[in-house]
Structures are given as structure tokens and as C-alpha cells.
Amino acid sequence: MPFTSYQMQAQGKCNGTLEVPGDKSISHRAIMLASLAQGVSEVKGFLPSTDCEATLAAFQSMSVEVERVSATCLRIHGVGLHGLQLPKNDLDMGNSGTAMRLMAGVLCGQKFASVLTGDESLSARPMQRIQEPLLKMQADISMSSNGTPPLVINKLNNNASQLVGINYQLPVASAQVKSCLLLAGLYAQGETCIEEKAQTRDHTERMLQSFAYPIKIEQQENSKNICIQGGNALIAANITIPADISSAAFFIVGALISKAGKLELKNIGINPTRNGVIEILRLMGADIELKNEKMFGVEPVADVVVRSSKLKGIQIPTHLISNAIDEFPIIFIAAACANGVTELSDAEELRVKESDRIHNMAVGLSAVGIEVREKADGIKITGGRIKGGEVDSGGDHRVAMSFAIASVASEQAITILNTENVATSFPEFVASAKQVGLEFC
Ligand code: S3P
């Protein structure tokens, strides 16, 4: 992939009306469940990003037929839970932790062996978190000695040639681990129950229900228990995917830090396990209004109206971290423009995302003139004037887009290096940014 960069002019605008593309997490899950369902599913609002296309290509290489009605509309001919065929090659999951970890759950239940690979960033991400519970389910899954991809999955190694259900308490707050185990649970004998202490995104649970798969969810006082019984069938469904709140978040912050912006974003997913970014920004003083709330199937959406606001620094509440886990790079830009200090703790997970987001953001913020202290489990940012300068995204799509948005409030131009991975989640980012008034040199 060619090395690309953005050169952002200072003081761009961020206003008007914008539609951002479909949700990445939900797009991955729609492909997976539709492929494993009985019958033909129509998926609208699909995100045609390189990450989601990699998931689609993986299922196509396992004999799932996909009709491309348009870039964002797919008709997926499900093969049923046991209809996938041996792929000819290793499955390349590109940059996507979600694709690799969820696919691992599916592939551990198959009667053929497979190998999952990824790009340089994905090849450095921790996979023991799925290996440990999958081994308990009697899967045969191995990886490099330091716990990173490629993942090598062999045919089941027990006599029953079936995975075995487990009770598992998630040691890290991770929807990817939870979803991996729920998908493996489709192939397990008996029940697989997962207990989560911190609430993580629940798109898999919701979408299993859309595909008529029984799932039991019990909310206890300090935890949630999610149980699935193997051996039932997924039935084809028509899915409309909400616009991605993680992509919307860039423009929400852009409007907040602009001089006099009012921005309206259409049909944004506001699932309560994903809307931590709105809650955190409101605590910082953001003027964010939700209008026209409705459901896209099992997922709530709303139009989000944002007005330029005077932000103040806050201690970010721990209980909101997992519901805003992908939005911290852009929240840090909001913090850089706020009055006072913003502090985040208990967020070491940010070090094992597409890049070490605590480090890359700290280095970038300081390069553009913001006082910042990196902590082992978070960051402390003193709001001030963003001067401008050159930032390396470290190949992280969300770091790249965050600094592009920072230019709305910068005194001088900002150059962002290494922006090619923006295509993994938001291929139309530059066009959308130009539409609302950001200026690229
Ligand atoms: C995702 C879960 C989160 C998030 C990722 C998408 C998902 O990861 O950071 O971008 O779709 O399940 P973790 O489960 O590792 O926290």
C-alpha cells in the first residue's frame, strides 16, 4: 500500500449535515452470521472498508456466495452452521482484531484446519486472551510463542469432534473475546456461559437474536451473564446497519472545537454499550442533542446534533471506558482543547489496539504543542493551544483521523504521516471531512 499523508490547513470548519458510513463492528458480525445462517440475508448499510472486505473475502473463500447489490448492500447466501468449506489459502484478516478474534471462534468449530494471518499491526496483537478459553472448550488452536498471530487452528482433537461448552468469566473487558466464545458456543456441546464484569458492546448478542438464535442474558447487580446453547440454527435475516458512532465521533469533536459550528449527523448507532463517547463529552460540557431516536432492527439510532462548545477538563469515569474504548484518540483531542486537565486511568487496553494509542497520542499531542503526561494505564492532558506541526499516526487509523480533526482548532497547519490505514474503517474520510469544511492543502 502506498505511504500517504494528510496536510491539514489550520482553522477548518466542521458544520452542516453529514452521513457517516456503516458501523464496523456490526458489519463484521452481519457477514459472519449471515454466512452461517440458513437462507439468503440482505445486509444494508454495510461498511465497505478494507477490514470488513477482508472478513467478506474470508467467507467467500470458504464457499459463501455473496451478491454485491451495491458497495453497501449485500445479499449473502448462507451455508448453515456446518456448510463452510476448506479455504484454499490462509485467511488474511488485514488490520482487524475483531475479524481475527471472532473468526477464530467460528473456525475452531469446523471440521477443517485453517490459518489466520494479519498485517504488521495485527501480527503484534495479543491472542492468548482467546486461546486460553478456546482451549478450555477443547479447540485446537496455537500461535507464535509470544502469543501473537498467525493463529493455527486444527480440526477438533476430542473424540466427539465437537467443542465443549464452558462457564467463563472474562478477565479483560473485551467484546471481541466475548463474541469469539459466543460464536464458538454455536458449535459446542452443551451451554457456553460468559460472565462480564464491565459491560462491553453487545452487538453479537443482539444480532444472534436477529438471526433467531436463542440466547439467555441475565443482568446481575455487578455483572452480566450471557449463555448460548450449541446446536440450534441461525435463520437468514435482513439487517440494516446503523452509521458508525466511532466514525461520527471525529466529526462530533470537530464541531465541538470549531469556532461556531453546528453539525447534524444522521442515523448514528447509539447502542448504550457504545455511546460512552457522548457521555464523556457531555461531562466535558459538550452540547450534543439526540433527535429522531428509532430502531434499525435490534439497534437504536438517532440523529446527533452538535454545537460548538466550551469544554472543560475532567477525570474520565472508569465505568465509561469500555463503552468508549475506540474513541479515546479523538476524546484526547477534545481534552487538548478543553479548559483544565483531563485525566484517564485504568485504560491500559489502549496500548494493545491497532497501535499503542496512549503512546502515539501522547507523542502526537506534544508534537503539536500540548502539555501531556503519559501514564502506564492512561494519560494526563492539560488543555491549551494546539500550535500545529507534524505527527506520525503509527499506522493507526483512529490516531490519523484524530489529528486531522485537531486542525480545526490549530493555529498552524498539521501534517499527519502514515494515513493509509484510514481505509480500514473510514474509506471516505477525506471526502466527508471536506464536505463539512475541513481543508486539506
Ligand atoms: C470491537 C471490540 C473492541 C474494539 C474494537 C471492536 C468489536 O475491542 O476496540 O475496535 O467489534 O467487538 P476489544 O473487544 O478488544 O476491547
What descriptive keywords fit this protein?
single chain; 4-stranded mixed beta sheet; 12 helices; 26% strand; binds shikimate-3-phosphate
Give me the side-by-side strand order of the main sheet: 2-17-19-18
Whole-Å distance between the termini? 22 Å
Evaluate the radius of gyration. 21 Å
What is the structural class? Answer: alpha/beta
Q: Mean pLDDT across all residues, rounded?
A: 97
Count of runs of 4 or more consecutive helical residues:
12
Write down the overall geometry.
globular
Q: Fraction of residues in helices?
A: 25-40%
Verbal overview:
The chain has 441 residues and is α/β, with parallel strands linked by helices. It is built from twelve helices and 24 strands. The strands form seven sheets. A four-stranded mixed sheet has the order 2-17-19-18. Strands 4-5-3-16 form a four-stranded mixed sheet, with helices on one face. Helix 3 (97-107) links the parallel strand 6 (91-92) and strand 7. Helix 1 (24-36) packs parallel to helix 3 (97-107) and helix 3 (97-107) packs parallel to helix 5 (175-185). The longest helix has 13 residues, at 24-36. It is globular. The two termini are 22 Å apart. The mean pLDDT is 97. Shikimate-3-phosphate binds at residues 25, 97-98, 174-176, 179, 201, 325-326.
